[in-house]
């Protein structure tokens, strides 16, 4: 009877190869982080560029040597020359506003609806003839024609 001869195989060591998966994961995370950073930077830059562009757009429509009417949220209107406009405020100089005649006169009452053009600075508290108006208070701004009744009255007073 033949004898069984058995050979023992040498134990095979499993060779551990470095896995590419963790490295790929690390690289993917880095790429995603950089993309997020770049997107955030792009948004910040576009925000500031739009702010600058909006201010420039408003400035390009204002007549530098003309008169403007500034209409506020509280239904008041001021007339003057805009000297500065930025993200936060509009500076109005040589300021005038309309006031009801009956508020100005103690004598015989004027007709209903008669308005007087008043120059800022003649009030009791004695303000300078300049207003710094927050943009959040402004509804809109209009350029006034040289032929408007307001401009003619202002120039007549000067």
UniProtKB/TrEMBL annotation:
This is Uncharacterized protein. The keyword Transmembrane applies. Keywords: Membrane, Transmembrane, Transmembrane helix. It comes from the Bacteria. The chain crosses the membrane at residues 31-49.
């Amino acid at each position: 009877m033949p004898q069984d001869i058995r050979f023992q195989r040498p134990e095979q060591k499993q060779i551990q190869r470095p896995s590419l998966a963790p490295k790929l994961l690390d690289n993917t995370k880095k790429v995603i982080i950089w993309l997020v950073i770049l997107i955030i930077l792009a948004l910040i830059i576009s925000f500031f560029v739009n702010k600058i562009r909006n201010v420039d757009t408003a400035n390009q429509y204002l007549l530098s040597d003309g008169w403007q009417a500034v209409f506020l949220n509280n239904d008041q209107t001021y007339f003057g020359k805009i000297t500065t406009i930025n993200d936060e405020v509009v500076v109005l100089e040589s300021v005038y506003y309309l006031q009801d005649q009956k508020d100005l006169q103690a004598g015989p009452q004027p007709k209903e609806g008669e308005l007087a053009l008043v120059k800022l600075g003649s009030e009791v508290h004695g303000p300078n003839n300049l207003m710094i108006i927050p943009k959040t208070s402004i509804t809109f701004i209009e350029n006034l024609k040289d032929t408007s009744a307001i401009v003619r009255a202002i120039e007549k007073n000067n």
